[in-house]
């Protein structure tokens, strides 16, 4: 046992295995966090446990059938996150070592964007079950966060809007943007639910029809 521990420690500490271990760690983290029931809003994975509660509240069927749906969704989410993490990390490492644009094996400015693009396409865009309710919910949640982040960047002094606004223009937009965003979101969803319900995501439509 001591010899095995020593061998494992040697592999972990050996720089030549760093890239392989980074990929393994990424896969492990993706699988673990994909299966975890995190109940805080600080993580996108909080949406999965909430989706489980939606299954119990609004889905028809027996308790066994609902539990089967929850286990299937959790397994799919865990597998998808692990796969995405492996693709993302592998792409980053490949770009770091083989891209002619990167100097001295350093990560380029847009490497993580390209790695996310490839991983997102392979797992959440065209992969098996890419348009499942779990994938749609996570992708829509991520999209919403990205839009909010880009909106904040746009009104910063160095942003495209910040450079053209009056000195306090960015502050006024930041103060009122959320009220406008929230009001229009609820206005549009109620209108769509009334006149075009088939266009709304199924789980949201079910909760609104409850």
Verbal overview:
The termini are far apart. This protein is an all-alpha fold and 210 residues long. The protein has helices at residues 2-13, 18-35, 47-58, 63-98, 111-125, 133-154, 169-195, 202-209. The protein is built from eight helices and no strands. The model is unreliable at 37-49 (pLDDT under 50). Helix content is 71%, strand content 0%.
Structural features:
single chain, 210 residues, mainly alpha, flat
Task: Supply Rg.
Answer: 22 Å
Low-confidence stretches: 37-49
User: What share of residues are in beta strands?
Assistant: under 5%
The arrangement of helices and strands along the chain is HHHHHHHH
Overall geometry: flat
Structural class: mainly alpha
**Mean pLDDT score:** 78
Number of strands: 0
Count of alpha and pi helical runs: 8
Helix content: over 70%
Instruction: Determine the N-to-C terminus distance.
Output: 58 Å
Biggest beta sheet attributes: none
Summarize the structure.
Helix content is 71%, strand content 0%.
Give the helices and strands, then pairings.
Blueprint: H1 2-13, H2 18-35, H3 47-58, H4 63-98, H5 111-125, H6 133-154, H7 169-195, H8 202-209
Helix pairs in contact: 2-4, 3-4, 4-5
């Amino acid at each position: 046992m001591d010899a095995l521990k020593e061998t494992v420690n040697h592999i972990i500490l050996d720089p030549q295995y760093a890239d392989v271990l980074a990929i393994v760690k990424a896969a492990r983290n993706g699988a673990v966090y994909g299966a975890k029931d995190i109940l805080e809003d600080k993580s996108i994975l909080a949406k999965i446990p909430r989706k489980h509660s939606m299954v119990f509240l609004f889905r028809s069927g027996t308790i066994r059938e609902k539990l089967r749906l929850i286990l299937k969704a959790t397994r799919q989410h865990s597998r998808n996150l692990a796969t995405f993490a492996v693709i993302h990390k592998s792409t980053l490492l490949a770009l770091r070592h083989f891209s002619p644009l990167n100097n001295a094996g350093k990560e380029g400015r847009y490497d993580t964007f390209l790695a996310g693009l490839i991983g997102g396409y392979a797992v959440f865009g065209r992969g098996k079950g890419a348009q499942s309710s779990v994938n749609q919910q996570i992708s829509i949640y991520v999209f919403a966060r990205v839009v909010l982040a880009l909106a904040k960047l746009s009104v910063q002094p160095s942003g495209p809007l910040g450079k053209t606004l009056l000195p306090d223009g960015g502050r006024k937009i930041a103060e009122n943007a959320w009220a406008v965003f929230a009001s229009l979101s609820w206005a549009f969803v109620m209108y769509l639910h009334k006149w075009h319900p088939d266009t709304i995501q199924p789980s949201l439509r079910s909760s609104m029809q409850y």
